[in-house]
């Protein structure tokens, strides 16, 4: 059982990466752009990470990290609002601080947040559409649809990565769970002893407390100042 | 308490209205049909206070002009407000302020910076910035941003209603993606999406809300940091167009409530005005 789960998680990670690449590649093709990138927001380091790149920079940018407050992608990440800029080079801060550091300085950027449920997971950017192609509102809507797809892929990737970290023993507690699961697997899931053990374990643990997590996110109350 | 109120036989609850009281509520200045000339003809937005809740505003940009005050949030838990000397760390707030200024050249602009370096934990900062602006009773609050966190929705809803009933109109960017976000979905704010036509005063009433109005949001040359301009698109930039138009209207009719302001906007919207007999 455990081996099968591990194999599934490991292969899923590759599949999700392929899915992200596919979304980036399709976005680039649809918009006739020179490049498209998907950034993942790393909450632990407060950085944006290049997760998938199609077109210019595809060989060098994967895994590169930027401060989450960097320029246009950072603004889009935080404000949850898409943004289209035709000539980003006119923004001195963008060109100097971010783009040159990545080795590719685009002219035009379409950036859209990758939103999944309540979270802002990252940013999809489409760089340098054809110079003579006029941007339309329909393209903005299309970009939003792509972003939805990319957000789902990114969410799956994150889940898969967390499961993989657990299986690889990054956390001793998860490693112990994995060890128990492996022993149970060896004993056979249908054995009466295993069933009794699992039932006893369920009794000890009691019902799942669904309120525990939501308690940490109580709604804010209005603070009226005198 | 006024003499008229002293003469009243008894205080009636606020949710009832007698015929006598109804007669006193007549507004002789209210036209039967709105024209743009009546709504904002001759107005420059003078006397109207506008808060730009965003990434800050570049105080030296020639297309923005004077920024009357610039604040940022210290401790969001106590709504601690500090003077802001950083200007604009992104460019977006400067763009919004510049668009408002281009339409209402004499309005007062105050920057409330809720974004900047280190975006982590920005939700409470954003809420605190908006709360300060509501408590300060600005006439208009431009909010070209939103949050998807449901934990903030109740608080934002309460803030939006408080603003509405205190004569502050929150003008908020709608989302053009299939997600729930706030505060633009609340009926007590004025929500704005983009249209692709030219003309800063071309705006459309949407009979199929939640997006209430559409304003120019495509291929706009807007001020950015460092004295530059960028060609941008997005609902973020449609929103300050409506804020600017609201500033013009309030500059001429400062007594309007947000409900009346929305009514005037409806009556003067390009699609409504052109269709009028």
What does this structure look like?
The complex is a heterodimer of chains A (226) and B (277). With 226 residues, chain A is an alpha+beta fold. Chain A has a domain at 31-154: GAF domain (Beta-Lactamase, 2-Layer Sandwich), CATH 3.30.450.40. Chain A has a six-stranded antiparallel sheet. In chain A, strand 1 and strand 2 (47-55) form a beta hairpin. In chain A, helix 1 (2-31) runs antiparallel to helix 4 (137-167). Chain A has helices spanning 2-31, 71-79, 92-102, 137-167, 172-187, 192-205, 211-214; strands spanning 35-42, 47-55, 65-67, 83-85, 109-116, 119-127. In chain A, 51% of the residues lie in helices and 18% in strands. The N and C termini of chain A lie far apart (62 Å). The relative contact order of chain A is 0.14. With 277 residues, chain B is α/β, with parallel strands linked by helices. Helices cover 32% and strands 18% of the residues of chain B. Chain B contains nine helices and eleven strands. The longest helix of chain B has 18 residues, at 235-252. Chains A and B meet through helix 2, strand 4, strand 5 and helix 4 of A and helix 5, helix 6 and strand 11 of B.
Mean pLDDT of chain B: 88
Number of strands of chain B: 11
Give the N-to-C terminal Cα separation of chain A.
62 Å
| CATH homologous group name of chain B | Peptidase S8/S53 domain
Judging from the principal axes of the Cα atoms, what is the shape of chain A? elongated
SS summary, helix count of chain B: 9
Give the CATH topology of the domain at 31-154 in chain A: Beta-Lactamase
CATH H-level superfamily of the domain at 31-154 in chain A: GAF domain
How many domains in all of chain B? 1
Mean pLDDT of chain A: 76
Question: Approximately how much helix is present in the residues of chain A?
Answer: 40-55%
Strand-residue proportion of chain B:
15-25%
Alpha-beta content class of chain B = alpha/beta
Uncertain residue ranges of chain A: 210-218
DSSP strand content of chain A: 15-25%
**Which CATH top level class of chain B fits?**
Alpha Beta
Specify the biggest β-sheet of chain B: 9 strands, mixed
Oligomer state equals: heterodimer
Rg from Cα of chain B: 19 Å
For the record, the CATH architecture of chain B stands as 3-Layer(aba) Sandwich
